[in-house]
Amino acid sequence: MSGIRRELNSKMAENCMVVLDTGPVRELAHSPRAPHWVSSFSAMKAHGYQFSLADHACGELINQRSRGSINDRDFGAMIDCLETFLDPAMPVMLGTKDIRVMIGAATQENNKPDASDVSRQAWSMLRECEISSDDLIEHVLHEDRAMWSDLFRKTEALYAAREHAGELDEYSHPLLSRVLESFNADANTVPPLSTRYDLQLRYFWRQFVRSKKEREPYNADAPKKRNDGIDFGLYGYLALPALIVATERGFFERIADIPSFQKAWIQRPEDLASSWAGGHQPQPTWPD
Asked: How much is the pTM?
Protein backbone atom coordinates (compact mmCIF):
# COMPACT_ATOMS: atom_id res chain seq x y z
CA MET A 1 0.00 0.00 0.00
CA SER A 2 1.38 3.41 -0.92
CA GLY A 3 2.39 5.84 1.80
CA ILE A 4 -0.31 8.36 0.93
CA ARG A 5 -3.06 5.73 1.01
CA ARG A 6 -1.79 4.09 4.22
CA GLU A 7 -1.58 7.48 5.93
CA LEU A 8 -5.08 8.49 4.92
CA ASN A 9 -6.67 5.13 5.74
CA SER A 10 -5.31 5.47 9.25
CA LYS A 11 -6.81 8.94 9.57
CA MET A 12 -10.13 7.78 8.14
CA ALA A 13 -10.33 5.14 10.87
CA GLU A 14 -9.64 7.65 13.64
CA ASN A 15 -10.85 11.02 12.41
CA CYS A 16 -13.65 12.76 10.61
CA MET A 17 -12.19 14.86 7.83
CA VAL A 18 -13.55 18.37 7.30
CA VAL A 19 -12.55 20.45 4.27
CA LEU A 20 -13.05 24.22 4.22
CA ASP A 21 -14.00 26.21 1.13
CA THR A 22 -12.68 29.75 0.63
CA GLY A 23 -15.74 31.56 2.04
CA PRO A 24 -15.51 30.66 5.74
CA VAL A 25 -11.75 31.28 5.76
CA ARG A 26 -12.16 34.69 4.15
CA GLU A 27 -14.74 35.44 6.85
CA LEU A 28 -11.97 35.07 9.43
CA ALA A 29 -10.02 37.86 7.75
CA HIS A 30 -12.89 40.32 7.55
CA SER A 31 -14.65 39.76 10.90
CA PRO A 32 -13.92 42.23 13.73
CA ARG A 33 -13.48 39.26 16.05
CA ALA A 34 -13.17 35.52 15.62
CA PRO A 35 -16.55 33.88 14.89
CA HIS A 36 -17.88 31.55 17.60
CA TRP A 37 -17.36 28.54 15.38
CA VAL A 38 -13.58 28.93 15.60
CA SER A 39 -13.51 27.83 19.24
CA SER A 40 -15.92 25.01 18.43
CA PHE A 41 -13.67 23.79 15.62
CA SER A 42 -10.70 23.90 18.00
CA ALA A 43 -12.62 21.71 20.46
CA MET A 44 -13.64 19.36 17.65
CA LYS A 45 -10.00 19.04 16.60
CA ALA A 46 -9.18 17.85 20.12
CA HIS A 47 -11.83 15.15 19.70
CA GLY A 48 -10.49 13.73 16.45
CA TYR A 49 -11.82 15.99 13.70
CA GLN A 50 -9.23 16.75 11.02
CA PHE A 51 -9.72 20.20 9.46
CA SER A 52 -8.01 21.09 6.18
CA LEU A 53 -8.25 23.86 3.60
CA ALA A 54 -9.38 22.81 0.14
CA ASP A 55 -6.44 23.13 -2.21
CA HIS A 56 -8.28 25.67 -4.37
CA ALA A 57 -9.16 27.67 -1.24
CA CYS A 58 -5.48 27.86 -0.38
CA GLY A 59 -4.74 29.02 -3.93
CA GLU A 60 -7.51 31.63 -3.96
CA LEU A 61 -6.41 33.01 -0.60
CA ILE A 62 -2.79 33.24 -1.74
CA ASN A 63 -3.94 35.20 -4.79
CA GLN A 64 -6.16 37.48 -2.72
CA ARG A 65 -3.36 38.18 -0.27
CA SER A 66 -0.84 38.74 -3.07
CA ARG A 67 -3.16 41.21 -4.80
CA GLY A 68 -3.65 43.13 -1.56
CA SER A 69 -7.29 42.14 -1.02
CA ILE A 70 -6.36 41.09 2.53
CA ASN A 71 -4.31 43.58 4.53
CA ASP A 72 -1.60 42.70 7.05
CA ARG A 73 -3.77 42.93 10.15
CA ASP A 74 -6.67 40.92 8.75
CA PHE A 75 -4.35 38.36 7.21
CA GLY A 76 -2.59 37.83 10.54
CA ALA A 77 -5.93 37.39 12.31
CA MET A 78 -7.01 34.83 9.70
CA ILE A 79 -3.81 32.79 10.05
CA ASP A 80 -4.00 32.90 13.86
CA CYS A 81 -7.56 31.51 13.79
CA LEU A 82 -6.71 28.80 11.29
CA GLU A 83 -3.76 27.60 13.34
CA THR A 84 -6.07 26.82 16.26
CA PHE A 85 -7.89 24.08 14.38
CA LEU A 86 -6.16 23.07 11.12
CA ASP A 87 -4.55 19.64 11.14
CA PRO A 88 -0.77 20.25 11.30
CA ALA A 89 -0.08 17.09 9.27
CA MET A 90 -2.55 17.91 6.48
CA PRO A 91 -3.45 21.62 6.68
CA VAL A 92 -4.33 21.69 2.97
CA MET A 93 -6.25 18.77 1.47
CA LEU A 94 -4.88 17.97 -1.96
CA GLY A 95 -7.01 17.83 -5.10
CA THR A 96 -8.61 15.50 -7.61
CA LYS A 97 -5.70 13.24 -8.58
CA ASP A 98 -4.54 12.83 -4.99
CA ILE A 99 -8.05 12.04 -3.77
CA ARG A 100 -8.19 9.10 -6.16
CA VAL A 101 -4.92 7.80 -4.73
CA MET A 102 -6.19 8.28 -1.19
CA ILE A 103 -9.32 6.19 -1.77
CA GLY A 104 -7.48 3.47 -3.68
CA ALA A 105 -8.81 4.34 -7.13
CA ALA A 106 -5.36 5.18 -8.51
CA THR A 107 -1.74 4.43 -7.71
CA GLN A 108 0.74 6.98 -6.51
CA GLU A 109 3.26 8.10 -9.08
CA ASN A 110 6.85 7.07 -8.47
CA ASN A 111 9.05 9.67 -6.80
CA LYS A 112 6.06 11.89 -6.04
CA PRO A 113 6.48 13.84 -2.77
CA ASP A 114 4.57 12.64 0.27
CA ALA A 115 1.07 14.12 0.45
CA SER A 116 1.65 15.53 3.92
CA ASP A 117 4.85 17.26 2.78
CA VAL A 118 3.07 18.87 -0.18
CA SER A 119 0.20 19.91 2.08
CA ARG A 120 2.49 21.59 4.61
CA GLN A 121 4.41 23.34 1.83
CA ALA A 122 1.15 24.79 0.49
CA TRP A 123 0.21 25.97 3.97
CA SER A 124 3.63 27.60 4.45
CA MET A 125 3.23 29.37 1.11
CA LEU A 126 -0.09 30.83 2.29
CA ARG A 127 1.11 31.70 5.77
CA GLU A 128 4.22 33.48 4.46
CA CYS A 129 2.55 35.17 1.49
CA GLU A 130 3.00 38.92 1.13
CA ILE A 131 1.38 41.57 -1.04
CA SER A 132 3.05 41.59 -4.47
CA SER A 133 0.22 42.34 -6.95
CA ASP A 134 0.71 38.94 -8.61
CA ASP A 135 -1.61 35.96 -9.12
CA LEU A 136 0.77 33.35 -7.80
CA ILE A 137 -1.42 30.23 -7.95
CA GLU A 138 -3.66 31.02 -10.93
CA HIS A 139 -2.41 27.92 -12.78
CA VAL A 140 -3.86 25.68 -10.03
CA LEU A 141 -7.30 27.25 -10.40
CA HIS A 142 -7.02 27.03 -14.18
CA GLU A 143 -6.63 23.24 -13.92
CA ASP A 144 -9.99 22.90 -12.15
CA ARG A 145 -11.69 25.10 -14.73
CA ALA A 146 -10.16 23.17 -17.64
CA MET A 147 -11.16 19.81 -16.14
CA TRP A 148 -14.77 21.02 -15.86
CA SER A 149 -14.95 22.03 -19.51
CA ASP A 150 -13.23 18.83 -20.63
CA LEU A 151 -15.83 16.72 -18.83
CA PHE A 152 -18.56 18.29 -20.95
CA ARG A 153 -16.67 17.46 -24.13
CA LYS A 154 -16.18 13.83 -23.10
CA THR A 155 -19.84 13.36 -22.19
CA GLU A 156 -20.91 15.06 -25.40
CA ALA A 157 -19.00 12.36 -27.27
CA LEU A 158 -20.98 9.65 -25.43
CA TYR A 159 -24.21 11.50 -26.14
CA ALA A 160 -23.46 11.94 -29.83
CA ALA A 161 -22.62 8.24 -30.22
CA ARG A 162 -25.88 7.06 -28.67
CA GLU A 163 -28.77 6.51 -31.06
CA HIS A 164 -32.29 7.46 -30.03
CA ALA A 165 -31.12 9.08 -26.81
CA GLY A 166 -34.53 10.68 -26.39
CA GLU A 167 -35.28 13.68 -24.23
CA LEU A 168 -32.74 14.12 -21.49
CA ASP A 169 -33.87 14.29 -17.87
CA GLU A 170 -31.87 16.38 -15.42
CA TYR A 171 -32.01 13.73 -12.71
CA SER A 172 -32.18 10.34 -14.42
CA HIS A 173 -31.56 8.91 -17.88
CA PRO A 174 -30.10 5.74 -19.42
CA LEU A 175 -27.04 7.73 -20.45
CA LEU A 176 -26.53 8.80 -16.84
CA SER A 177 -26.60 5.13 -15.84
CA ARG A 178 -24.00 4.43 -18.50
CA VAL A 179 -21.78 7.20 -17.19
CA LEU A 180 -22.07 5.80 -13.65
CA GLU A 181 -21.28 2.28 -14.81
CA SER A 182 -18.22 3.43 -16.73
CA PHE A 183 -17.08 5.36 -13.68
CA ASN A 184 -17.26 2.23 -11.52
CA ALA A 185 -15.25 0.30 -14.09
CA ASP A 186 -12.29 2.58 -13.47
CA ALA A 187 -11.52 1.12 -10.04
CA ASN A 188 -12.70 -1.46 -7.52
CA THR A 189 -13.40 0.53 -4.37
CA VAL A 190 -15.79 0.02 -1.45
CA PRO A 191 -18.17 1.75 -1.72
CA PRO A 192 -17.96 2.06 -5.53
CA LEU A 193 -16.87 5.32 -7.14
CA SER A 194 -20.42 6.13 -8.25
CA THR A 195 -21.40 6.20 -4.55
CA ARG A 196 -18.32 8.11 -3.45
CA TYR A 197 -18.85 10.75 -6.15
CA ASP A 198 -22.66 10.66 -6.04
CA LEU A 199 -23.34 14.38 -5.65
CA GLN A 200 -20.52 15.44 -7.95
CA LEU A 201 -21.67 13.17 -10.79
CA ARG A 202 -25.34 14.06 -10.43
CA TYR A 203 -24.54 17.76 -10.32
CA PHE A 204 -22.49 17.45 -13.49
CA TRP A 205 -25.24 15.48 -15.23
CA ARG A 206 -27.80 18.16 -14.47
CA GLN A 207 -25.52 20.82 -15.90
CA PHE A 208 -24.84 18.71 -18.98
CA VAL A 209 -28.58 18.35 -19.62
CA ARG A 210 -28.98 22.10 -19.20
CA SER A 211 -26.21 22.61 -21.76
CA LYS A 212 -28.46 20.89 -24.33
CA LYS A 213 -31.39 23.29 -23.88
CA GLU A 214 -32.45 25.30 -26.90
CA ARG A 215 -33.10 28.44 -24.86
CA GLU A 216 -30.36 29.84 -22.64
CA PRO A 217 -28.27 26.65 -22.50
CA TYR A 218 -25.64 26.29 -19.85
CA ASN A 219 -22.17 27.15 -21.16
CA ALA A 220 -19.29 25.84 -19.08
CA ASP A 221 -16.85 28.09 -20.97
CA ALA A 222 -18.76 31.33 -20.36
CA PRO A 223 -16.76 33.92 -18.38
CA LYS A 224 -19.51 34.17 -15.75
CA LYS A 225 -19.26 30.39 -15.21
CA ARG A 226 -15.46 30.28 -14.96
CA ASN A 227 -15.50 29.27 -11.30
CA ASP A 228 -18.09 26.50 -11.62
CA GLY A 229 -15.25 24.03 -12.18
CA ILE A 230 -13.73 25.06 -8.84
CA ASP A 231 -17.00 24.33 -7.02
CA PHE A 232 -17.23 21.04 -8.90
CA GLY A 233 -13.78 20.09 -7.63
CA LEU A 234 -14.87 20.85 -4.07
CA TYR A 235 -17.59 18.18 -4.29
CA GLY A 236 -14.84 15.66 -4.99
CA TYR A 237 -13.73 15.74 -1.34
CA LEU A 238 -16.96 13.98 -0.43
CA ALA A 239 -15.42 10.82 -1.92
CA LEU A 240 -12.89 10.54 0.95
CA PRO A 241 -15.44 10.76 2.74
CA ALA A 242 -15.37 14.24 4.29
CA LEU A 243 -17.63 17.01 5.48
CA ILE A 244 -17.37 20.27 3.52
CA VAL A 245 -17.70 23.69 5.14
CA ALA A 246 -18.90 26.55 2.93
CA THR A 247 -20.72 29.86 3.32
CA GLU A 248 -21.71 31.24 -0.08
CA ARG A 249 -25.48 31.14 -0.58
CA GLY A 250 -25.14 30.39 -4.28
CA PHE A 251 -23.07 27.32 -3.49
CA PHE A 252 -25.95 25.79 -1.52
CA GLU A 253 -28.60 26.96 -3.97
CA ARG A 254 -26.84 25.25 -6.89
CA ILE A 255 -27.21 21.82 -5.30
CA ALA A 256 -30.59 22.28 -3.59
CA ASP A 257 -32.46 20.14 -6.13
CA ILE A 258 -29.81 17.43 -6.52
CA PRO A 259 -31.14 14.08 -5.18
CA SER A 260 -28.02 13.03 -3.28
CA PHE A 261 -27.43 11.79 0.26
CA GLN A 262 -24.16 13.73 0.27
CA LYS A 263 -25.88 17.12 0.39
CA ALA A 264 -26.13 16.70 4.16
CA TRP A 265 -22.33 16.52 4.32
CA ILE A 266 -22.00 20.14 3.15
CA GLN A 267 -22.66 22.58 5.98
CA ARG A 268 -22.19 26.16 7.02
CA PRO A 269 -19.56 26.59 9.75
CA GLU A 270 -22.04 27.81 12.34
CA ASP A 271 -24.35 24.86 11.66
CA LEU A 272 -21.55 22.32 12.04
CA ALA A 273 -20.38 24.02 15.24
CA SER A 274 -23.95 24.13 16.59
CA SER A 275 -24.45 20.44 15.87
CA TRP A 276 -21.26 19.63 17.75
CA ALA A 277 -22.18 21.90 20.66
CA GLY A 278 -25.58 20.18 20.83
CA GLY A 279 -23.94 16.88 21.63
CA HIS A 280 -23.93 15.38 18.15
CA GLN A 281 -20.93 13.97 16.35
CA PRO A 282 -21.41 14.92 12.69
CA GLN A 283 -19.96 12.26 10.40
CA PRO A 284 -20.08 11.52 6.66
CA THR A 285 -21.60 8.03 6.61
CA TRP A 286 -22.09 5.86 3.54
CA PRO A 287 -25.64 4.61 2.95
CA ASP A 288 -26.38 0.93 3.67
From this structure: 0.89
